[in-house]
Amino acid sequence: MIFFRSDYSQGAHPKVMDALMKTNLEHSDGYGMDAHCEHAAQMIKDLIGIQDCDVHMMVGGTPCNVTVIAASLKPYESVIAARTGHAYFHETGAVEATGHRVVAMEGINGKLTPEIIDQALTEYQDEHTPKPRMVYISQPTEIGSIYSKEEMAAISTKCKEHDLLLYVDGARLGSALTCKANNMSIRELASYCDAFYIGGTKNGALFGEALVIKNKQMNENFRFMIKRQCGLLAKGRLLGVQFEALLDGGMDSIYFSMAAHANRMADKLKEGLAAMNVRFCGDSQTNQIFPIFRTDVVRELEKDFFFYEWEPEKDGKTAIRLVTSWGTDESDVDAFLNRVREIIK
Amino acid sequence: MIFFRSDYSQGAHPKVMDALMKTNLEHSDGYGMDAHCEHAAQMIKDLIGIQDCDVHMMVGGTPCNVTVIAASLKPYESVIAARTGHAYFHETGAVEATGHRVVAMEGINGKLTPEIIDQALTEYQDEHTPKPRMVYISQPTEIGSIYSKEEMAAISTKCKEHDLLLYVDGARLGSALTCKANNMSIRELASYCDAFYIGGTKNGALFGEALVIKNKQMNENFRFMIKRQCGLLAKGRLLGVQFEALLDGGMDSIYFSMAAHANRMADKLKEGLAAMNVRFCGDSQTNQIFPIFRTDVVRELEKDFFFYEWEPEKDGKTAIRLVTSWGTDESDVDAFLNRVREIIK
Amino acid sequence: MIFFRSDYSQGAHPKVMDALMKTNLEHSDGYGMDAHCEHAAQMIKDLIGIQDCDVHMMVGGTPCNVTVIAASLKPYESVIAARTGHAYFHETGAVEATGHRVVAMEGINGKLTPEIIDQALTEYQDEHTPKPRMVYISQPTEIGSIYSKEEMAAISTKCKEHDLLLYVDGARLGSALTCKANNMSIRELASYCDAFYIGGTKNGALFGEALVIKNKQMNENFRFMIKRQCGLLAKGRLLGVQFEALLDGGMDSIYFSMAAHANRMADKLKEGLAAMNVRFCGDSQTNQIFPIFRTDVVRELEKDFFFYEWEPEKDGKTAIRLVTSWGTDESDVDAFLNRVREIIK
Amino acid sequence: MIFFRSDYSQGAHPKVMDALMKTNLEHSDGYGMDAHCEHAAQMIKDLIGIQDCDVHMMVGGTPCNVTVIAASLKPYESVIAARTGHAYFHETGAVEATGHRVVAMEGINGKLTPEIIDQALTEYQDEHTPKPRMVYISQPTEIGSIYSKEEMAAISTKCKEHDLLLYVDGARLGSALTCKANNMSIRELASYCDAFYIGGTKNGALFGEALVIKNKQMNENFRFMIKRQCGLLAKGRLLGVQFEALLDGGMDSIYFSMAAHANRMADKLKEGLAAMNVRFCGDSQTNQIFPIFRTDVVRELEKDFFFYEWEPEKDGKTAIRLVTSWGTDESDVDAFLNRVREIIK
Predict the structure, then answer these.
(1) Over chain D, what is the mean pLDDT?
(2) Given its phi and psi angles, is residue A181 left (phi above 0), alpha (psi -120 to 50 degrees) or beta?
(3) pTM for the whole thing?
(4) For residue B89, which residues of chain D lie inside 8 Å, CB to CB?
(5) Which of B70, B89, B262, C231 could be stapled to B287 by a disulfide with Cβ–Cβ 3.0 to 4.6 Å?
(6) CB-based contact B199:B7 (threshold 8 Å)
């Protein structure tokens, strides 16, 4: 069985495993109060060119999103997100579990725009509605699209106009930063938002995300919040060690080369399928693509390949999700394309 | 610097690291829906001699406690715990964050008794108070003591009488099961409660706890709860792989030999100090001990050893906490005893 | 200034005030444990023809909705509602404050349908989404439309098929039951749902709603829930006394005659405006209507009449909301119609 | 049956009922945005001699406490209270329902002291415990005692030292202010705290409490919080109208004369019983007293009088609670004393 199921189906990049092995018997203080976490934080500050910020090593993406939202909002405040946004659509109501509404708006290709934000503000403007206070976006989005520099700048400006915090979910940030369509550096991205995270789980770590908070108010007693939200890892140094390995070399680190590889594999899949006149849902530019096949083709493919069906069948056709990762072999991509060719010929 | 700071200051037992390395490039489905988690769960069912239960691989102890409590109680229900209980005293209000009161009772040597439970029930008996519905105990307790078989059986009986769920926090369960004073098997413990967890973080895992739920009602849609509480790990198999390694061999596995080692090291420390007429807070039988020194002795000791001060200074004396673990070298124990001998002679 | 602002701009019907005066110096036990509440509850059981149910006297509509939802759902469960539903749109996130998502669906004329419920179930079907467990509808809806008997029966059937609880917000229930288009008796309505409330605040009470819960599971320890949600009134008997007065005479009580009057006043407004070729938003059959005027007409009208603007101006036109009540004088309706006639002639 | 059960067993003072009758058919805007609420707020500002504060008309004491706490604290913050405090002991966990711990301390005669606050701060001082941020006290306490001016000033000073907010629950504030032992004016009390409320429910209103918030940060968007916590009354003017009637005349208003009467009745009971050598629990100075009788005496008394048993029987004796109110007839007090005299003679 060949996996295009997710970008978290394998363990970690060998260099990450190596770092964990080498440091395994070191003693250090718990809960992320150790030299590895401190060093990794400094590496990130240097990478994004911002020293006056705080970096927290988090266990996963959902804890990241939920802790940031719960720490930043007053009880009656809400967060605006695209309907496809992970914090709305794939976290089993974990945001609501902290007492906040996610104001879910229909996005355009998975993205919010200043106009959509305005629309939310128009609908939520008196004391009988939960006051919007944050905008949540994902880069790349959950359907593989990316915000251009100009698009993110425009959202950032809109947020400042309306005293909205801007938070960027970077679960697959490497993939966005290294895809062909991208025109925004990590430093630019960091400059536009109040907080964002650099995702490790989906790009070569065993687990872990590095959360960057620029806004002092959002960061106040943030470690209390991590603990309260059950996200403070006893052996916090595991996160520091992994990010040291992932980001060693900065823009030349494996973090970026792994993501670039995943994108290349997805591009090859996409181009190969397009050449066979396969059509796609949405317009992904990163490491997830959503081809649409006749359902009988899907049934054949799933004998050898493991992937998600993305949407319920419609008119005899089914969209599937193919995800590539740092560990995807090019031969697997070829195998998939060949199999499709055989089936649909 | 020699660490007696905690039992989570190092990484994992080499066999655990080995297992992670060997399986690193395997592909598997996410969120704990994989063969390793399934196998580890089966190993645990066999170990405790109960097939009709559910095992969930959890990231840490606080997520375990909080998810179980939030899944089991109705909004107006509360959980009875000793004031020193971790869920009350060391989780930054994470239980309250899910809307439930922890009814904190003064324990006896860190333990609840049937009488103390009765006292709580007497105080909480009308609709103006949050109805007690669960009893939370830790085995061993946070101050190192253990429940005997008879004590736990009595609590279990009391709980059944009053329709209270019994949940056992086993963050250091190995240490309880392997200490000299213990007279209760893991099978007996499992038989007395509705749910408990086998702690990995504090006994040789990188992280992870195996939660066993016998009570069907508590387990209903439990995976929704794990996700909602931000505790569902994408690469869930990491937990399965670790518990496979930890429990390989059952009662002869490293899980028990590591704990026994930690206990031996603590016993040696305790006996060595007692021989020097050092006195202790509480009466620990496991891998945490709480010697009391003159504060100037503590100041000297902390130059070479890293540990917690346990209580504020009183009458010129300070209690400290020394914790041993699977990785504690006997030479470190000797070094500590020698240093104390030098200072106080 | 003539008020068409709401149906809660005045105090209570004189008979209600009378009953409060007459019983004012009686002593009774607190929190609704008194003979008036008991009697009112019995009157309601007789009215709806169901003895095996529980009736709780609640302070207001939002406490009613929120307490029912929080009492009925497990933490990971959600409630399906129309986007215009009060519990979603006008309660400042009070449902989310209890940890639950409201799954907001685009309704049809403010109403849910079995097909819309199916659509929600299709979108929310795995453990990464908050499991739908309740359907919330309002009768009449917040935009004045009503469910026919057949429509509500179909929703009820759909709910039973999918193990969804059906809850009906009856803030303006009297208005639905007495409007010309209605073909469903209160007994039929009660038979279709698991719980509903008979609204007092918007139909002649000072405040108060009578919540009827048929489903035993939803009612378990419900009074604990009322208190926990801050809704247990010390002088609970005030609610019982008011409902005794409101419902004295059953279907011939002032509860129904007041609502019928409000509907007649709204019908007269609607017909009068329609005769002047005024158009309306939505298709209300009850005591709220939503005429659309040129914005300059609205500006003139608001000099003499007090009402809400309903939607932001569009193409020079503004929709307003006119609400009639038990206390609306026919002369006020005439005054409004005359004033419109003068302005737009 | 003669009621000494509570001070909320009857309706409202006739002047309050009168005011409600007179204004019953007035139309006004909803949710407390009306002239009566505005006027009552101004009367209160004048009464306490502070113009720069906000007054919110609340439905009851629990909503008051919970909304203030939830509005003021960050998610990881806690509130320090006496174990007997209403917000801890008699609200079914409504504070925890908003995600906050109440740090319950053993009080002295129901009261906190600076030393007790220090003790709480010592126990709660790292990121693994929910950070104390507010002190909650009741004046008078739930067991009838009062804080002297000096005691409250000392608490206020302690709070300022540690950046703790001070909130005073004034459910029976009138009783404290008018009792013989009191040496603190309402202006002094207002000067010591960040927020407090003037209780109406237990002193002659149908329901309602006037919440005064001096601290701007606690008041930010407070009306959103009231709505979110389900406490925004549609016919908010009912609260304004009642407080206009209660406070008409300021210190000479019925608010104070009613409370003084209740205190006199309690004093007469206390002195009469003391003369018969009856002993008491605690040392109440206000309108609740807690005499201890042989249980057989209690059984006789409860044939003619309705009251709470206060504590479980002990050594054949039972403590009961007697509460007097504005509506207590002196003849009822005499009847009680006579009956005791007969029984125990």
Answers:
(1) 97
(2) alpha
(3) 0.97
(4) 128-129
(5) B262
(6) no
